[in-house]
């Protein structure tokens, strides 16, 4: 267990918390302590099973059967030069699924983009689809840059510039026990102010609809007490 993280710790942030608190603080370099719960890993060069083992080693826990893992991923050099990022691992590759979606804040401001990917074992284009999936989040360069983005009901993704130094990735397995991921903004999920510092959940038994309402009951004392 990583130093300072108590037994039973569960990490269930909303999408708004992931982008506005964790990713933006990482991009701005304003909170080094967030790497205690979200490590920096080159997620696209490592097989999914190894990623979960790396998270266990660096943070002392995280996901499990049907639970998510979270990582910061630095921009690849080839992507910085204008090329396409490599998503090939030793045993397979990540393939994008669907169209990137806009992520909104509690007050309906577009704050970033979400891209979903599926891991295939083998070599493209004839690989075998696996249960591993990943959401990649990127923040708009400025929160107001997404003002021209489409509504949540559809349309092409916003043309606003993105912060690309780091993305935030959520790794999980597709199974019957997967907890429903909360895409609601902070205020809607917490029933409180959107400015509250996000927090981990406590261990509890609940239906998927209740999971994230329960997770808002504990604030980020772990980070604040470092």
UniProtKB/TrEMBL annotation:
Gene3D superfamilies (alphabetical):
NAC domain
Q: Write down the Pfam families for this protein, in alphabetical order.
A: NAM (PF02365)
Q: Which UniProt keywords apply?
A: DNA-binding, Nucleus, Transcription, Transcription regulation
Q: Where is this region: Disordered?
A: 188-212
Domain annotation NAC: ranges: 5-174
| Keyword DNA-binding on entry | yes
- Name of this chain's protein: NAC domain-containing protein
């Amino acid at each position: 267990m990583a130093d300072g993280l108590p037994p039973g710790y569960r990490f269930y942030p909303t999408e708004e918390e992931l982008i506005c608190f964790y990713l933006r603080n990482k991009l701005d370099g304003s909170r080094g302590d967030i790497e205690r719960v979200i490590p920096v890993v080159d997620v696209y060069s490592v097989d999914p099973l190894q990623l979960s083992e790396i998270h266990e080693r660096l943070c002392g826990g995280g996901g499990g059967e049907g639970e998510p893992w979270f990582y910061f991923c630095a921009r690849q050099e080839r992507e910085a030069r204008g090329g396409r990022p490599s998503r090939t691992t030793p045993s397979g590759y990540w393939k994008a699924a669907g169209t990137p979606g806009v992520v909104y804040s509690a007050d309906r401001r577009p704050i970033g983009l979400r891209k979903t990917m599926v891991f295939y074992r083998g070599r493209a284009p004839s690989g075998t689809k696996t249960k591993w999936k990943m959401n990649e989040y990127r923040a708009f360069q400025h929160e107001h840059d997404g003002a021209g983005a489409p509504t949540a009901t559809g349309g092409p993704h916003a043309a606003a510039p993105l912060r690309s130094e780091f993305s935030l990735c959520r790794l999980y397995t597709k199974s019957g026990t997967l907890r429903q991921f909360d895409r609601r903004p902070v205020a809607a999920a917490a029933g409180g102010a959107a400015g509250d510092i996000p927090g981990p959940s406590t261990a509890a038994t609940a239906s998927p609809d209740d999971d994230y309402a329960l997770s808002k009951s504990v604030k980020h004392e772990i980070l604040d007490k470092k």
